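Researcher: Structure prediction, please.
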Amino acid sequence: MIREIPRKVLSGYPMLLVIPGVIALLIFTLVRSGQGGQIAGVIGSVIGLVAALILLAGFFMVHPNEAKVLQLFGKYVGTAREPGLRWANPFYAKKGVSTRIRNFESGKLKVNDSYGSPIEIAAVVVWKVVDTAEAVFEVDDFEEFVHIQSEAALRNLTTTYPYEPHEDEATALRSHPMQIAEDLRDEIQARLEKAGVEVIEARISHLAYAQEIASAMLRRQQASAIIAARTQIVKGAVSMVQMALADLKSEGVIDLDEERRANMVSNLLVVLCGEERAQPIVNTGSLYS
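Model: Predicted structure follows.
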């Protein structure tokens, strides 16, 4: 694999003074030689002038958070990262590579989770180039490579976890976003290591059941919520009935036999667990009538 080689290049500002000065001097010499009929001087001045003009191609600009990958006739010779006006061998091919932090959001992918339920999922990936040589020479188009491999990693991660937690599952896409984000970042980083890219962050930006099963899953979630609420209501009602019976007995208000106790428990549970407001009935006769 080709690794990045830091390349020190000359500052362009001194050369900005030297090369134009040399060109001006050569032009002056060319004129004087032509006027004096000195053929050798004319030829030398022309050759020097052409060489000085070629040297102008050595100037290039490096912007902040940018690098220039330098090649000499196809051979990688190094990467210049120091910002500002720079000058190097005019025969170097110079390819700019941004090292700024970038991000992109994948499209909504339809993938089956670990239980086979179709879901829609998308992610936001934050990344930057850390090795310019690998980014330029190891892959054909590193930006496209990042996009494709990120979506592939997202698909693979989705098939590993269920959409929501079940009794035998500790981690799910919906209930553990931090862990899922960390696992997604690690998987994308492993795929992009060869492209000289560092993944700073990866998070799920969209997560939902696919349209064809969304209504069925919504009914299941609603049923689960109703069961959980009913369970809590029943537990609270039983606790209140136990407290009421215990208080009546400890205060000596009334001593209930088993039949009256069962009747009272039934009535209290109906009142406490019913969805509608209870309608009291006053009994003016015996409890057994």
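Model: The chain has three domains: 10-97, 102-209, 221-273.
Researcher: Thanks, that helps.
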